[in-house]
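Continuing the batch. This is chain 6 of the set; chains 1 through 5 are on the previous pages. Same settings as before, nothing changed between runs. Recording input and output for traceability.
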Amino acid sequence: MQPFARPFDATVRPVGSKSLTNRALILAALAEGPCTLRNALFADDTAVMLDSLRRLGFVVEAAPDTRQVRVEGRGGAIPAAAAKLNCGASGTTLRFVTALCALGRGHYRIDGSARMRQRPSGRSLGRCAIWARG
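Output for chain 6:
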């Protein structure tokens, strides 16, 4: 293989990360106003996070074909007074949604897959219900 004889111009787009995508989704929900995430990774973990945010009352528009998600942030407020959330097997979703729900004023039930209930998340996170300030 020959080394390049001169500088070259290229654009590289690394594959998104489900962990970083979920973190960015929580931050977008906490922000004030609309946020657009680019290069989001759409995976099972992302799907349960998007579903959880919608069930909590956030406006979420996902476009997997362009790897973008738009979230209407509520400045730290949780729109729904009650929600049943299923985090599937996503530990990231379970942990971040639990913290997000603590900001709300209502009743939020958080659950996950049978395997998730076996994972070491602390006694209260395997299957928990949160009654936030109400």
